[in-house]
């Protein structure tokens, strides 16, 4: 006799099975490289159809303050970028900049803004490496450029990686690192700014790009003014266990109940973005000076802030020959930590040669708004050693 399930029971079973089935199909889809790329980079999700990013006044910039231009990578991708002139410098050159031809500059080196940049003896550059999804002017991004350029002397240069916004190509780990390297080479060789006047500022996925590119230059003996990583993560597969897309949709989180299944899923994440390893290597490669700043918000719903702990752990490990013992690490870190309230702290580690590694947990700012919050602007200023002595009440060594 066939068992007749009551309609209520049948509905209940479906209520459990359907989301589970949907989640499993998404996972299966996500294991296919094409879909994985789109799900992780979300590079096609943008607002280009809504507004014209070649008109930066739309985002509150002064006329001619932002110059959009394209860089060409060695593998012939066109990378869309913004050069944002700091307002104090803009004011001194207002007439020339405001009359600059609007839109994408066909030859950036022929623009007024480039002339102003080249002629700025104090020029300091923040290379802004954004996170996944959206374009150069998406959501919080323009506001975070404003924070850095409205009152400071810093030029910000931001870019859309390959496959994002108006840039050509398809995103990939080596590709994104190449795009950042292309911009850095341009700043050093074409704009003539020495690396110690350049800070790499990455957010979310951009922290992985910054770590990758900083390690690459360190291997060639190039040291930057500093590296600021906001809402960073240790490696992509490890991070996905705790990641929530848009702060809501767990990606591999539900698999944490089955560690072996989680490992299988982590194994099919093709691109690893191993930032913890890269930072460890960066620290070991440092010959003269390093300023590495890790900032995260306690209320980040996308990437758990403890990922920054892992980055700090890896970087700190490289400051001591033979590494730091696992058992005593927590106490070792606490000695270098200041807690002003129980949901925030600052750890400052100083080491030879002239290395400062700083980790800050800020109570507010979530995953994105933090980019416009004081700790990020301060971290950039600290990289340029504008804060006088390093602020540590407990620099016990
Ligand atoms: C580079 O790409 C452009 C189109 O974006 C194309 O016109 C040009 O021929 C390419 N150059 C090389 C050397 O492949
Ligand atoms: C720290 O460094 C030591 C020596 O290089 C290494 O054996 C150990 O795995 C490292 N620990 C971490 C957590 O990176």
Automatic annotation (TrEMBL):
Residues 126-304 form the AB hydrolase-1 domain. It comes from Sodiomyces alkalinus (strain CBS 110278 / VKM F-3762 / F11) (Alkaliphilic filamentous fungus). One of its GO terms (molecular function) is hydrolase activity. The keyword NADP does not apply. This is Abhydrolase domain-containing protein. It holds the Pfam family Abhydrolase_6. The chain crosses the membrane at residues 12-35. Signal peptide: none annotated. Keywords: Hydrolase, Membrane, Transmembrane, Transmembrane helix.
């Amino acid at each position: 006799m066939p068992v007749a399930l009551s309609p209520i029971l049948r509905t209940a079973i479906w209520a459990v099975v359907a989301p589970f089935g949907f989640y499993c199909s998404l996972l299966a889809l996500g294991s296919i490289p094409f879909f994985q790329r789109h799900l992780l980079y979300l590079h096609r999700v943008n607002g280009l159809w809504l507004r014209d990013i070649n008109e930066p006044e739309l985002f509150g910039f002064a006329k001619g303050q932002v110059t959009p231009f394209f860089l060409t990578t060695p593998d012939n991708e066109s990378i869309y970028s913004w050069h944002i002139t700091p307002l104090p410098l803009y004011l001194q050159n207002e007439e020339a900049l405001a009359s600059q031809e609007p839109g994408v500059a066909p030859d950036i080196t022929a623009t007024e803004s480039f002339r102003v940049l080249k002629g700025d003896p104090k020029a300091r550059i923040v290379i802004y490496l954004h996170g996944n999804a959206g374009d150069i002017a998406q959501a919080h991004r323009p506001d975070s450029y404003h924070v850095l350029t409205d009152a400071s002397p810093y030029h910000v240069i931001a870019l859309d990686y390959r496959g994002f916004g108006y840039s050509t190509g398809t995103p990939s780990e080596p590709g994104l690192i190449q795009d950042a390297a292309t911009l850095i080479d341009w700043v050093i060789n074409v704009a003539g700014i020495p690396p110690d006047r350049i800070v790499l500022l990455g957010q979310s996925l951009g922290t992985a790009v910054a770590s990758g590119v900083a390690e690459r230059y360190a291997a060639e003996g190039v040291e930057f003014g500093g590296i600021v990583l906001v809402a960073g993560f240790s490696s992509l597969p490890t991070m996905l266990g705790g990641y929530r897309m848009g702060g809501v949709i767990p990606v591999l989180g539900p698999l944490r109940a089955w560690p072996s299944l989680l490992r299988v899923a982590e194994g099919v994440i093709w691109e690893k973005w191993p930032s913890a390893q890269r930072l460890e290597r960066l620290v070991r490669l440092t010959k003269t000076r390093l300023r590495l700043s890790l900032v995260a918000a306690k209320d980040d719903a996308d990437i758990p802030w403890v990922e920054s702990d892992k980055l700090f752990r890896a970087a700190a490990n490289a400051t001591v020959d033979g590494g730091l013992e696992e058992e005593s690490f927590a106490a070792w870190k606490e000695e270098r930590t200041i807690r002003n309230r129980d949901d925030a702290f600052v750890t400052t580690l100083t080491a030879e040669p002239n290395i400062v590694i700083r980790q800050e947990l800020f109570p507010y700012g979530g995953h994105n708004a933090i980019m416009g919050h004081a700790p990020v602007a301060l971290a950039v200023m600290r990289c340029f050693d504008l804060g006088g002595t390093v602020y540590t009440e407990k620099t016990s060594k």
